[in-house]
Design goal:
Structural class: mainly alpha
Distance between the termini: 32 Å
Strand content: under 5%
Shape: elongated
Number of strands: 0
Number of helices: 7
Largest sheet: none
Radius of gyration: 19 Å
Order of helices and strands: HHHHHHH
């Protein structure tokens, strides 16, 4: 399906906004209630007594994956007016991240088959949730690189605000740095958590600002809007 640059702008913005709401529910609300770190018995009990909430969490992750796929395509269409190679690279990184996220969510979904097996499965269930998180965090390293590439490409566009390009680059560096530390240097988790608390706001605002800006400005894109700066 071929879409215009304006349609791509709307596809990206709407997908990102849907993703934001779904992520808030899936990870910020449901997952944080169900999974208790270092407490396998409580985690299994939560998943057993709140199984419907867990299913809704998985559905929300599914929505996020579909939205990410839409963004992967939309970002390629939107960026190619500035730099075709950069657009392909950014879209590919987003797609790779989405595949990794999908694999992580699959690991989480496998818990459904373990919930009814009794307390003996508690440790396996907690390990499965940790596997989900580790795989997802590995994907977020790639996601951060996607944001950096996107910001660098848009930095060269005369119609795109410099502050938003810089915010995307800065947010992408934050995602890659923080989740790289979580994945490869777990012994530094306390220090990484402190860094994350400092960088969390620009990281969160990077894509959210892009979504809002594209939603507002998308209909005003002129044919030469995304031409390169001179």
């Amino acid at each position: 399906m071929k879409i215009s640059t304006k349609q791509a702008a709307y596809l990206i913005s709407i997908s990102l906004l849907i993703m934001t709401v779904a992520a808030f529910f899936a990870y910020g609300f449901a997952h944080s209630q169900l999974v208790i770190a270092d407490n396998a018995e409580q985690t299994l009990m939560n998943l057993t007594t709140k199984q419907s909430l867990f299913i809704f969490e998985l559905i929300a992750w599914g929505i996020i994956i579909l939205a990410d796929l839409a963004v992967s395509y939309g970002i390629y269409i939107y960026l190619r007016a500035v730099n075709v190679n950069g657009a392909m690279f950014s879209g590919l990184l987003r797609f790779i991240y989405t595949i990794i996220l999908g694999y992580a969510v699959w690991q989480l979904a496998m818990i459904l088959g373990q919930i009814g097996n009794g307390p003996s499965e508690a440790l396996k269930v907690l390990e499965q949730t940790s596997l989900f998180k580790n795989i997802w965090f590995l994907g977020l390293i790639v996601f951060g690189l996607h944001l950096v590439v996107t910001g660098l490409v848009l930095f060269k566009s005369k119609g795109f605000p410099l502050w938003l390009s810089i915010l995307l680059i800065f947010g992408g560096i934050g995602y890659t740095l923080i989740h790289g530390l979580y994945v490869f240097f777990p012994q530094l988790n306390s220090s990484t958590a402190l860094i994350e608390s400092i960088l969390s706001i620009p990281m969160m605002l990077s894509e959210l600002s892009l979504a809002v800006w594209l939603l507002i400005r998308g209909k005003k894109l002129a044919p030469d809007y995304l031409a390169k700066r001179r």
